[in-house]
Design brief:
By secondary structure, this protein is α+β, with helices and mostly antiparallel strands. The chain has one domain (3-120): Ribosomal Protein S5, domain 2 (2-Layer Sandwich). Helix content is 29%, strand content 29%. It contains 4 helices and 8 strands. It has a 6-stranded mixed β-sheet with strand order 1-2-3-8-6-7. Strands 4-5 form a two-stranded antiparallel sheet. β2 and β3 (20-28) form a beta hairpin. α2 packs parallel to α3. The longest helix is centred in the middle third of the chain and has 19 residues, at 91-109. It starts with a strand and ends in a 30-residue tail after the last helix.
Length: 150
């Protein structure tokens, strides 16, 4: 069931990876072929991350392809206007959180998308986190103090 805000229908999901959290909204684009989100006008097929076009944030083409890969895997190119708010982590963690969020939103759109996305591995939450630093080790998480020689 899509949510509504000011007569704009959208599907919302959260994606996570390491310290990154991405809130993804897939807007259903009507006859006018664009959606007004805040002060932005997003056309069908466009992706905005933190209110900027995603090709300005992720300059490398393989990263852009990776972000759009769940949409391509489910044959939904040009159907949605995508808006993402992402916080925390680094660029790679944010990118993987966005992919996770887009995949989860596509499952909300249509349950038939789930087997395709699950087979590729986009719905799996990569739960690895940074290991905490232990007290008394003299540095990082797995470092041990140097033993005395005499």
């Amino acid at each position: 069931m899509p949510k509504k805000t000011k007569n704009i229908e959208y599907y919302e999901a959260i994606g996570r990876r390491k310290r990154s959290v991405a809130r993804v909204r897939l807007y259903l684009v009507g006859k006018e072929k664009q959606v007004s989100v805040g002060n932005l006008k997003i056309k069908a097929g466009e992706v905005y991350i933190n209110q900027k076009p995603f090709d300005k944030i992720f300059v490398e083409s393989y990263k852009r392809d990776f972000i759009l890969s769940p949409i391509g895997a489910t044959n939904n190119q040009g159907r949605f206007a995508v808006s993402v708010l992402v916080k925390g982590g680094g660029k790679n963690g944010q990118m993987e959180a966005i992919v996770h969020g887009v995949s989860r939103a596509l499952v909300l759109v249509d349950q038939e998308n789930k087997p395709n996305l699950k087979k590729v591995g986009y719905l799996t939450r990569d739960s690895r986190k940074k290991e905490r630093r232990k007290v008394g080790t003299g540095g990082k998480a797995r470092r041990a103090k140097q033993s005395p020689k005499r």
